[in-house]
Protein 1
Amino acid sequence: MAKTKELSKDTRNTIVDLHQAGKTESAIGKQLSLKKSTVGAIIRKWKTYKTTDNLPRSGAPRMITRTVSKNPRTTRGDLVNDLQRAGTKVTKPTISNTLRRQGLKSCSARRVPLLKPVQVQARLKFAREHLDDPEEDWENVIWSDETKIELFGKNSTHRVWRTKNAELHPKNTIPIVKHGGGNIMLWGCFSAKGPRRLIRVKERMNGAMYREILSENLLPSARALKMKRGWVFQHDNDPKHTARAEWLRKKHFKVLEWPS
C-alpha cells in the first residue's frame, strides 16, 4: 500500500480554522478535497494536544523524557537537534507539549547554598531527630539570618524541566556560595506568628556587630511577636554567631542546636 502523503502545516492549520468557524468535518473535507477521516484525525489531535505539529514518533517521547530527567537543564533546541540526528523531525512547541504531558514544565532553577557532603548528612540527621516534634515546639522558635542583596551582580536565570514540587531536587537547583557578592547586608528574624525586625547592616558584619544587632533587636522582636516563656532562638553556625555563644548564655537565651 502506498504511503499516504503528509498534509502540509498550512493545510492542517486551515482544517482547525474551519472547524473553529463552525464547519463540519464533511464540509471541510469537501472544501479541501480531503477524506472526512483525515479531517477528523487532525481535529482530534488538535483538541488533545493543542497543536497541529507532527508529534514525536515511536520512542521519541521516551527519549525526550529520559534526557531531561538525566539533565533538567537540557534546552528544547538541544532536544530538537538530538532527535534530528536520530532521524525524527520535531519542533520546539512539540517538545514542550510532550514534556507537559509527562508533568514536566520549564521553570527557573532555584538557587540554594553549596553544601559539602558532611553538611548534607548533618542536616539530614537534624531533620530525622526532629521529625516527630510537635507543631507547638516550632511555634516557639524565633528564626534569624542575614543575607547580602546583589544590586548589580550576575543574576542570570537558568531554566530546568521538572515536575511540580521538585524545585529543591539537587538536579533542579544552582549551588551558590553564601554572601558571594552584593552591596547591601540585611539581618532579620521571624516566627510562626509572622515577620519581625528587618534591619540594614551598615558596617562589616563581625562578632561585635552581630552582638550589637541581637542586643538591640532580638528581645524587642520577641516581645512584639508575643513569644511564650522559654522561647528558643535559632541562628546558623557562622563563626561570628558561634563566637557570641557565651554572650547568649549569659543573657539566658535558649539556642536551637543547628546543623552545619
Protein 2
Amino acid sequence: MKRYIIGDIHGNYKALKQVLKRSKFNYEKDFLIIIGDVVDGYSCSYEVVEELLKIKDKVFIIGNHDVWWMNHMANGWAENIWLWQGGRATRESYESHGYHYKKLPQAHKDFFNNGVYYYELDDMLFVHGGFDYPRKMPKDETKDPRDGKEGRTFDEEMADINDTLDLKSPSEEESEEGKESEEKVEESSEGVEEEVDEGQKGEEAEKGELSEEEREIKEAEDILDHIASIAEEQGYEVETDLLQAREVAPTIVDEAVEREVDLILIGITYKRRFGQFSLGSVVPYVLKNAPCRVILYQEYTT
C-alpha cells in the first residue's frame, strides 16, 4: 500500500483524475489523505466527490470551503462571501445533477459529515489551515482539535464553528494543466489616487496642464495600456476597464463578481505610514474578498 496526499481540489475534476492517473494511484490498495477544500471554484464539485467515494481507503480533513458547503447543506445558508469564493459553482454543480441542499445524495452528506479536522500518521500531523502549536491536541484523531469533543456531528458543530474556525479567504490558484485563462484587468482611478505618495504628487504638480482628477485617470489608463500590451504579447485576450466610484474597494469586488473576471490587477506606489510601508485600505479589502486571483503591481518611484 502506498500513501498519497492531495489538497485544494476545489471542484477541479479533470485535474483530480489527471493526478491520480499519473501517480498510478490504486483505488483498491492505496491510501489517500485529502487535506481539505474539495469543493468551490471549478464547476465539477459533484463529480469530484463521486470520484473520491470510489476510493476504498481514505481520510477526509475538513477545509474552510468544505465548512461553507456543509453549512449550505445543513440549512441552505448562502452568504455572499461563500458565493464569491466559489460557492456558486458548487451549488450549480449539484443543481446540474438535479440536487439541492434539501435533496442531496446520502453518500455525499456522509462523506462531508464524517470528515475530521486533523489526522495523525506516524510522526506527521495533517491539517488544512494550521493549528495552535502551544495548545495540547487530543490524541484521538476523530476529535475536533479546537475543543476536544469526540464524535460531534456537523449539525452539533454548527452551533459554534463560525466563532472558532479561521475562515480566511484563500487566494485560489488554478491547477488545471494547460488551461489558459482569459485575463480581465480591473483598475480604479481612485484606488491609484489613494496610493500616490507625497513625492510623486510634488513631481506631478509641475505638469499643471491637467486637473488632479484628469491626471489620475490618465495614469490609470496608462497602467491599463501597459498591462494590456504585455498580456497581448503573451497571446492572451484581454478586456480592460477603468472604474470610478466613491467606495473603491467594494466596487472592484462587485464588478469582478458580476463580470466573472479571471484576474484583478492593482497598481500601487510606495507609500509610508508611521514609518512603514502601507497598502492602504483598498488592497487588503480586495485581497480578502476577491472572487479570483489578485496581482499587485508596484511602481517604484525615485
Protein 3
Amino acid sequence: MNLLFKIALPCLLGIAGTAVAQKLQPKEESELLEKVNSVNGNDTIRIESLSRLIDAEKSKDKREQYVARFYDLVGNIKDPKGLGHYFLRNAEHCSLSGKYNDGVSKARTGLLVLKAHGSTEEYFRAASLLSISLHTVKKIDEALALCNTILFEYHSYPEGKAKSGILSKRGMTYFEKKDYRRALADFKAALNGYRKDGARNGMSFTYNEISRCYQEMNQFQEAAAYVLKTVRDPVFKDQPYANKALLYDRLAFIYFKMRRYGTSLAYSDTARANCPSDNLNLIKQIKTNKAMALFFSEDSHNALQLAEEVIGDGLKMNTYRKRDAYYVVGLCQFKSANFLKAQKSFETAITAARIIDSMGYGNAHNFDVIFDSKKKLSLIALGNNNPEKSYALLEQSYQAAHERLKAVKDEQLHKEVNTFELGEKKREVRQLTREQLRNRLEIKEQQNKMLLLIGSLVVALLVAGFTYRGYCIKKRNAREQEQKRKTIERQNERLEAAFKERGVLLKEIHHRVKNNFQMVISLLQIQADEGEYSNVEAFMEEAVSRILSMSLIHQNLYQSDNLSEVDFSEYISELVTYTESAFAGEGKVVFKTAIPNVMVDLQLAVPLGLILNEMILNSLKHVKGVGGTIKISISLEQEQEGSYLLCYDDNGKKETAGNANSFGIELIKLLVRQIEGELLPAAAKNVSYRIRFNIT
C-alpha cells in the first residue's frame, strides 16, 4: 500500500516519498541553532532550520521551546502565510525528488505556519499533504492521529471540498491498516462533500477508492459499480490516457475475480486501447491481467503466448507483474502436461509473491497465487513419484492457508476490539476475560489443525489412490500378457494341427497319384489288349486324353488351398478348354456346360473325369455334326441332398454312337460301378448319357 502512495501521489496531489526523520549530530544541531539565532539571517532560512530542529528533537520540553520560538519567528515576518505555502511547495519538491524525510519536515512546517496564519481550507490542504507524506515513510499511526485531531477540532465545519480532503486521507489510512469498513465510511462521507461543491476530480478519486475497498472486501459487484461511475463521470473525458487505462484495467481485474471472463477480456482490450504506447509498465500490467482471464476462459494457448510476451520482452518487470505472469505461464504449462517448465514457473511466481508479502503489500490475490501454486507443485511432485515432496508441498500450502486464516482472524479480532471500544460495545469488551479470548483462539487453532489434518488425509488418499492405480495397471498388464500367451499357444496348436493335416493330405495325394498311375497303366494295358487300333497315333491320342483328364485334377488341387477336394465346375471348364484345343483338327466342337460349384472328392473326381473324357472321345469319333459342327452339352443337376445327375448329350444319332461293347463304353460302365453310380437309359434320339451318383 505504501508503494501505491508513492506511485499515486503525483496524480493525487503532485507529491511522493518515504523517509524517517533522523536524530541530528551535535555539530549539525549547533549549526542550525546559529542560523536560527542569526540577527541578520534570512527569515525563511531561520524558520526552515528551526523546523528541522523541531522534527529531530526527542525531548518534549526542548521541543516545546522550539515550537514557541517557531511561532515567534512566523509572527514577526511580513508574509507568514506565503512562507507556509513556500514550505508546502518545498515539501512537494522534496517528495518528487525522493527526499522523503525532508518532505515530511517541510510539510509539517507548512502546516504549523498555515494553522496560525492561513485559512481553514489552506490548513486542511497542508494537513492532507502532511498525511500523505507520513504515509510514504510508513508513519501510518501518526497520519491517522493527525486526521483524527483535525476532524475532531473542526467537527462542526460544514461539508465540502476542504473537509472531504481530510476524510479521504483518513480513509486511505484506514485502508492501509486494512480496516476497510471504516475506510469505506470515510470515503463515502468525502464523496458527499466533493459532490456538494461539485469537485469532479475529488469525486472520481473517491469513487476509485470506494471501489478498492469493496474489492478488498470481496464485494466485486459494488466495486465494479463505483469504477463505472468514475468512467462515466464527465470529468473523465479530460483525464490523461494513463488514468483511463488504469481504471479500465481495474474493471478487467474485478470482473476476472467475479469469473466473468468475457467481460474482463473486453475491458482489458479497452484499457490497452487507452494506454499510451510509452507506458510500458502499464501495458505489462494490462497484458498480465488479460492473460489470466484468457486462461480461465479456456484459451490457454493465447494466455501462454501473452504471458510469455510479458516475460520475454527484455524489459524489467516489477514484482507484481512477475508474480502474475509466471503464475499464468505455470497454469498453461501444467494444463498442457509440461510439468518440468510448469514447476519452474510456479516456483518463480511463489518467490515473487513472498517478496510482496515481505514488503507488507500481500493481499488475498497474493495468497491465492501462493496457495494454488503450492498445490500444483504438490501434484507435479506426486506425478514424479515423489510422494514425500508432494506431501511437504501440500502441507506448506495448507500451512500458508492456516497462516492466512490466522491473520484474517487476528485482523477481524482487532477490528472487533476496535469496534467494541465505541458505545455500548465497551461494556462487552470489559466482560471478555483473557481466558475467553484464549478459548476463542484455541478453537480457531483447533479448526486450523483440523484443516491441516484434512489436507494430510487428502494427500494420503491421493498417494493411496496412485498406488492402487499402479497396482491395477500392473495387474491388468499381467492379465493381458497371460491372454496373449494363451492366444499364441492356441495359434501354435492350430498351426501344428494344420501342419500334421498337410502331411497326412500329402501322403494321401502321393497314394492317390500312385493309384492314378496304376490306373493309367491298367488302361493302357486294357486298351492295348483290345487290339482295335491300327493307327498308333490314334491310340496315343486317346491315352494322352485320358491321362490329361487325370492330370487336370491334380493341377486343380495344387492351385487350390484344399488338397482333398476339386471344384468340379472349374475342372469341367479346364477339360473342355483342353479338348477344344487338342481336337481342333477334327472339326468344329461346341461345348455347352451347366455345372454348379460343387466340391468333389479326389476319389470321385478322377473316375468322373475319365467318364466324361470317354464320352467326349466317343462323340469325336462317331458323331457327324450338322454342317461339320459337333455340339456337346454337359450338365450336373442336384436331385436331392447328396444325390446328383450327370447329363451328357451330343447332336449325333444313336446309330452312330458306336459299338455298345466297345472299349470306351465298357470303360464308362466300369468307372460308373467304381463310383457306385447308376448309368440310366436315355430316351432322346441323339446320343445321350445319364449317370446318377452320390457326393458325400
Protein 4
Amino acid sequence: MVAAWPCFRRWAPSSCSPASNRMPVTWGRISRQCWDKQRGMARQKARRGAGRKRMSNKPGHKADRASAEFQARVAALEAAPMGRTRLIVVLLCFILNLLDGVDVVLLTYAAPVIAQEWGLKDGALGIVLTASLLGTAFGSMLMGPVADMIGRRKVVLIAITLIGSGMLLAATAHDMVMLAVWRVVTGVGIGAILASMASITSEFSNARLRSFWVAFLQAGWPIGAIITGFASAVLIQAYGWKPLFVGSGMLSVIILPVVAWLMPESLQFLAKQDAPDRLARMNRLLVKLGQPALSEAPPLPAKRGVKLSALFEGHLARSTPALWLGMTMGWAGLYFLISWIPRIAVNAGLPLDQAIMAGATFNIGAFIGSAGIGLLATRLPLNRLIPGFLGAATLAMLLFGWVSLPIMATFATILVLGVLVQGGFNAFYPMAAQLYPTEIRTTGIGTAMAVGRSGAILGPLAAGYLMEIGTDRGMLFLVYAVPLAIAAVAAWRVGSKPS
C-alpha cells in the first residue's frame, strides 16, 4: 500500500488521503488500480529497455558506435601534444627530406667539374641536370596513387632503395648517357618519397601545428643542400665527384632499416584498409600514441578507386588547377637558381670553391625561409603568405640580375633569394596537404608534384640553352622572375572560396 501512495496522490481527488475515514471501499479500489497501473508501466519500461538493448546490438548501431569511438580518438590526437612517437615520425621524415636535398644538389655542385672532365657544353649539361627531375616527375605521378592504395610506409621503403641504388650506380658512370640514366632512377625514388613525406607528416601532426610541421619537413631539403655544398667545396677538388655519390648512396642504405623499424602507417590510413589484423594494428599504434585502445574497428569506407577526377570535385575544381600552376611556375624559378647559381658564378669569374659557396648560401636562406614560413603559417593563411614571399622574390630577382653589387652584397642577395623563393615554394606542400582529404591526399600531392616538375625540368633546361646563346645575366633573371610572379598569383587562388 505504501508503494501505491505516489500513484494515489497523482490520480485520486485531493480530498482523499490515506488517513481519511471516508469511502474506504473507494480508497481500496483506487489503490489497487494505481498499483496495477504502476506494475504495467514498469513492465512497459522493461520492454522498452530490452528493445533498446536489442537495437544497440544491430549491425547499423554497432557500426555507428565503432565509428564514434574512432572519431573520438582522432579528435583527441588532434588536440593532444605531439608526443614521442609522433615526433620520431616527423623527425624521420625530416631526415629523409634532408637526404633528398643531398641527392638532388650533389650533381649541381659537381656539374662544373663533370663538364670540364667530359667536355660538356652548357646545353648538354642542362640535359644531365634535368634527368633526375624527369624521374622525380614520373615517381610522383606513379607512386602517389600507389601509396594511397598499399600504404605510405611501403612506398617510402621502395623509394629509399631506388635512391640508394641510383646514387651508387651513378658513381660508376663514364659518360653523359649512363649518368643521366642513373639520375632518372634516383629521381623516381625522390619523387615517390617527397609526396609520401608530406602526407605522413600531415597525418601524424596535431591540428594546431600541422602547417608548421609540414613546412618544417621541407626545411630538411635545404639543410641537406647546405651540408652538401660545404662538403663539396672541400672534397671535390681533392677527391673528385664520384666518392661523394658513393657516400650519399651509403647514407640511404644506412637509413633504410631505421625507417623500416620506426615508421608506422598513420591511424587514418589503417582505418581505411581492409586487413585481417586491422583492429590490432590500430590499437598498437593508439597505445604508442598514448590513447586508449578501440573496442571495435570502425566501419570500412565504401570501396572507391583512387581516380584523378576526385581531384576536381567540389571546391577542388578551382583549387587543384591553381595549385598545379603555382607549383609548375614556382619550380621553374626555384630550379633555375638551384641548378645554375654555381655555374653562373664560375662563368662570372669566381673560383670553384666560392661558386659552390654561393650555392650553399642560397640553401642557408632556403632553410631560414622554410622554417620561417612554417612558423608564420600557424597564424596566417598560406594562400596569403606564399604570394607575399614569391612577390618579394620577384623583385629580388630583378635586383640581382640588373644591379652590379660588391661580392658581400651579392652573397647577401643570394641569401635573401633563398629565403623568399625556397620558403615561398615549400609552403605549397602544407597547402596541398590541407587541401586534399586522407583518401586522396598522397595522390593529390603526388600529382601536383608530377605536373609541377615540368617546370623543374624545363626551367634549368631552358636556362642552359639561353646561356649557351649568350643571354646576359640581367635578361636571364628577368625571364625567370616572371614564373615566380605567376606562382604568387596562383597561390592566392588556392583555397579561396569559390564565387
